[in-house]
Amino acid sequence: MLIAELPDFMDDIAFQGLIGLSMAMYLWLISAGLTIIFGVLRIINFAHGSLFMMGAYLAFTFYGQLGLPFWLAILLSLLGVGLLGLVMERGFLRRIYGIDEAYQLLLTFGFILILDDAVKIIWGGVFKIPAIPPFLDGAWRVFGRPFPVYNAFVIAVGVAVAVGLWALFEKTWWGRIVRATASDREMANAIGVNVPRVFSGVFVFGSMLAALGGALGTPVRVVAPGIGAAMIIQAFIITVIGGLGNLKGAFVASLIVGILSAYGTLFFPVFELFLIFAIMAVVLLLRPQGLFAR
Questions:
Q1: Which of 30, 105, 289, 291 has the highest local Cβ count within 10 Å?
Q2: pTM of the model
């Protein structure tokens, strides 16, 4: 009997791994933006999760309420959150660069409270779930089970973003300027780099990555006030595990946390969060700087 059930058990393991992979890509999109912002600006942006939430609400508005095409709704949500990020960076965060991290946490946590109340005023406190776009609806048979096409789409987007970020920061002139500014902002300023403009561009770019994760999650994840605070906790865990400011580490840590969460839900649903925090604790004890930090 046990031998006969073994193939089904292995299929369950493999299928749950695919579910974890799709979860990991949502986490990767939000943690990638957080990692880039910290790596360049050296600021702890606790409000990054709220930018994820705003991307979700804007996508819901453009696609679920106004009926705009799905791709246009995604683009408009990214532009809207990018504009919000620009206002936050130029109006507030620019004033606290280089000071104690406690002030950074207080200011960015204040944005969480403000944006949570703002979405309650604008959209109400009831959760929202728009329909999945028709061309991404349905499921494929994988390991004898239906695997949603939308989950496969999210996995593809996450991998494409990872490749795109590598090419952007390693192969383009703007990427070299950003890396030089992150390495030594005084020297970059001395050779003519407009450091404040680079900071603004990086913050807007990181905000749009968070918005992309939120916008892509709207057809399959609940959109409600407070989701930003929940997401930022997982994003910080990922950045700690991978190494603060390291994109490669953030990608690998997203895979670890996403897949571990999926298997935790399957085998240890009561201890799912405990497993994630246990991994972070082990990493902090054995390698405090993170798995890939230099």
A1: 30
A2: 0.90
